[in-house]
Amino acid sequence: MPKRLEHSSVILLRYLGIVFFSLLLARPSFASTDRGFLRNYKAAKKYYRVGEYVAAQAVLEPLMYCEEGNDITPYTWFYYALSAYYQNDFVLATDTFCALADVFPVWEQ
Predict the structure, then answer these.
(1) The model's pTM
(2) Is the dihedral of CA 38, 39, 44, 45 positive or negative?
């Protein structure tokens, strides 16, 4: 193999490796979700289940924006909107549901 072709192959392999590694890191998935994010999400759902909607919203709000790529983020928006609804804040609930539909148009819930 000519030396120039070998050099091109090495550069191509390095480039492909970098691209693959970057895609791997950027891939949104449940498995890559931060443990702190999950812990806070579960805490917010507990608050929601017992009717502590203000506390649920306080925990959910930062989660709505910190990890937009994972599978749980749409649920943070959903529970935030429901918490607003059950506090009779219908404007905030409507705005949040509409934003949820805009930000996550293919979310199947």
Answers:
(1) 0.68
(2) positive
Any idea which residue has 């409507």 for tokens?
94
Query: Is residue 79 a part of any domain in this protein?
Result: yes
Contact 94/68 with Cβ under 8 angstroms? no
Number of domains in the chain: 2
Reported as a single tens digit per residue, the pLDDT across 68-102 is: 568 899 999 999 999 999 999 999 999 999 999 99
73 assigned to some structural domain: yes
Alpha helices by DSSP H, the chain: 3-26, 35-49, 53-66, 73-86, 90-103
Let me know: does 93 contact 84? Beta carbons within 8 Å. yes
Cβ burial of 59 (10 Å; 0-12, 13-18, 19+) is buried
Angle between helices 35-49 and 53-66 (to 10 degrees): 150
Look up residue 66 and give its DSSP letter: H
Report which DSSP code applies to 20.
H
